[in-house]
């Protein structure tokens, strides 16, 4: 039996996207940096780099490339901070830049190989489990990563933001600069492709067990 994508995603330990206040800590840091307190940029990175690295890892499937993406993201943020509209959620603006960087790097790199590392290495150890259960979970996660890596960039971004990062449809739409209906359509298409990918590779041969 092929596991549903929702069950696999739940096993990844998702965390909800926080509702950012109109003038939260990140917005205050952005205001300070724009007023000339360049040293506040270090505080901004310390508060957000973990999330940006995790997002890049999920988008690109490669730890080293994710680190490059995070570095490029903060370079772009620093260079274009004057274009950030004060009063708007800073995290959504930051994530939009990170997604664009990942898409750019993904196009240059081409189709992503199956990552050698696992998400557990980035997100912490999972609860203890039996050997057979651990093998099956590793197989399912490996297939999920391969399936996500094979998606078109727009669908991959919608799926990562909506299902892996835990953003609502409206939040993901704001980040990507598209309509909510577009996010719903892209995420639904991505889920169907991931499910088909996993079903195809897990299909028993000649009626036998996988």
Topology:
Elements: H1 5-10, H2 25-34, H3 40-60, H4 63-80, H5 90-109, H6 119-123, H7 131-149, H8 153-164, H9 169-176, H10 180-202
Helix pairs in contact: 2-3, 3-4, 3-5, 4-5, 5-9, 7-10, 8-9, 8-10, 9-10
Provide an overview of this structure:
- This protein has helices at about 5-10, 25-35, 40-60, 65-80, 90-110, 120-125, 130-150, 155-165, 170-175, 180-200.
- It is mainly α.
- Helix 8 (about 155-165) packs across helix 10 (about 180-200).
- It has one domain: Rna Polymerase Sigma Factor, Chain: A (Orthogonal Bundle), CATH 1.10.1740.
- Helix content is about 70%, strand content about 0%.
Characteristic terms for this protein:
210 residues; disordered C terminus; mainly alpha; 68% helix; elongated; 10 helices; 0% strand
Summarize the structure.
The chain is mostly helical and 210 residues long. It has a single domain, classed as Rna Polymerase Sigma Factor, Chain: A (Orthogonal Bundle). It contains ten helices and no strands.
């Amino acid at each position: 039996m092929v596991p549903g994508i929702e069950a696999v995603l739940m096993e990844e330990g998702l965390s909800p996207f926080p509702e950012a206040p109109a003038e939260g800590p990140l917005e205050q840091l952005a205001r300070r940096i724009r007023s000339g307190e360049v040293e506040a940029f270090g505080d901004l990175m310390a508060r957000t780099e973990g999330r940006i690295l995790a997002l890049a890892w999920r988008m690109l499937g490669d730890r080293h490339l994710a680190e490059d993406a995070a570095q490029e993201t903060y370079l772009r943020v620093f260079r274009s901070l004057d274009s950030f509209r004060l009063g708007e959620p800073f995290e959504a603006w930051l994530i939009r830049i990170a997604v664009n960087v990942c898409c750019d790097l993904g196009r240059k790199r081409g189709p992503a190989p199956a990552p050698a590392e696992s998400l557990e290495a980035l997100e912490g150890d999972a609860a203890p489990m039996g050997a057979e259960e651990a093998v099956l979970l590793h197989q399912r996660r490996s297939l999920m990563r391969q399936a996500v890596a094979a998606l078109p960039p727009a669908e991959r971004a919608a799926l990562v933001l909506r299902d892996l990062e835990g953003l609502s449809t409206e939040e993901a739409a704001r980040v990507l600069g598209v309509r909510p209906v577009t996010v719903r359509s892209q995420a639904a298409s991505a889920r169907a492709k991931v499910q088909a990918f996993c079903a195809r590779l897990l299909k028993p041969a000649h009626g036998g067990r996988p």
